[in-house]
Amino acid sequence: MESQVTEKSFVQRIQQIQNEFESELNQIKSLKDLEGVRIAYAGRKGVVSSLFKQLGNIPPEERKAAGQSLNLLKQFVSQTIQSRENSLSCRNVKQKIDITLPGEPHYTGRLHPLTQVLREIKLCFQNMGFSIAQGPEVESEYYNFEALNIPKGHPARDMHDTIFVDDNLVLRTHTSPVQIRVMENQSPPVRIIAPGRCYRRDTPDASHSPFFHQVEGLCVDKNVNFADLKGVILTFARHMFGSDMKIRFRPSFFPFTEPSAEYDFSCLICRGRGCRVCKGTGWVEISGAGMVNPVVFGYVGYDPEEYTGYAFGMGIERIAMLLFEIPDIRLFFENDMRFLNQF
Ligand code: PHE
Fold first, then answer.
1. Hey, where are the domains in the chain?
2. What is the pLDDT of residues 14-35, one digit of tens each?
3. Ligand 1: centre distance to CA 226 (Å)
């Protein structure tokens, strides 16, 4: 008959086995080693199982506490083996990776060409002391036309093939309404550019899109004159296209500027010799500009006796097409990666 075992010595034995188990586990290097340890401790004829058999030798009043300690050991052994198995099989997967295979390429994103050009435009004007203003794309007729001295029935409204959203509500046909919003909200001096999207009811072709982007410029202060306007446009042209750029102004008409002009850059494709882009003239049209019409100052409460100002517009697509020699405006909006990847 087996001798009696006390709970105290039994728990000491459990502790000892746990220590042995842990140090054995520290030595193993493979799943195969682990399996050996598992059989020795958690197997049917393993250490834990033989301890269970000894429980009967413990006096009944101490047996319950001893059993609890033993159950804890059993749990500890099986959990530790399981987590060790997980980490070992993970390592095996890593070992199977063929490091001589070529890597998977990661494609970097890039900025849309229009974004790139707009950033450059902003940089140029910010360097000249202009700040950035914004206005809504859904605009009231008041801001898009009326306050710009284009009353209802005025033939200048026909120049803009307007998309109406509702009575008195349009998709802005140009960024000029931002001029009005800025002047309503601040007194002179004003020096802003306002980039943004515009809409016109055009049938798309190589040079027309029903939406496009403009940058509006506005400067109002005492003693601002047409020469200031020309200086700013020239600085801009040379910043974007190089120091040999020439500019020219041709008389034109806009209801919100007086006098008004359209301005051209010397053709940078042929450097003025004449080509398809400039239709043989050596010049490419950029947009309109002029001195702010005093009538417009009336709408925003500026005193035309005290202040003068100039305003100009430009098409961002236009500038980008010239800069990157892009032949068709529709390319900007098709999101064809073969096109976008080139910039
Ligand atoms: N808003 C005009 C257009 O879209 C351009 C312009 C802007 C003209 C500012 C003069 C002054 O055609």
1. 7-96, 113-340
2. 999 999 999 998 998 888 999 9
3. 15
Q: Ligand 1 in contact with 229 (CB < 6 A)?
A: no
* Per-residue CA distances from 318 to 141, 209, 214, 237, 327 (Å): 26, 12, 9, 13, 10
How far does the centroid of ligand 1 lie from the alpha carbon of residue 180, in Å? Answer: 13
Tokens of 215: 């940058």
| pLDDT-above-70 percentage for the chain | 97
CA dist 309 and 287 (Å) reads 18
Q: Apex CA 147: angle with CA 146 and CA 149, to 5°?
A: 70
Query: What's 113-340's CATH class?
Result: alpha beta
Q: Is 287 exposed, middle or buried (0-12, 13-18, 19+ CB in 10 A)?
A: buried
Q: Which of 139, 143, 174, 249 to mutate to test the pocket of ligand 1 (most atoms within 8 A of CB)?
A: 174
What does the CA dihedral 75, 80, 83, 85 come to, rounded to 10 degrees? -110
Residue pLDDT, tens place only, 161-180: 899 999 999 999 999 999 99
Does the beta carbon of 217 lie inside 6 Å of ligand 1? no
* Cα 249 to ligand 1 centroid, rounded to whole Å: 14
DSSP-derived letter for residue 109 is P
Please tell me the least confidently modeled range out of 10-14, 64-68, 97-101, 255-259: 97-101
To 10 degrees, what angle do helices 47-54 and 31-42 make?
Answer: 10
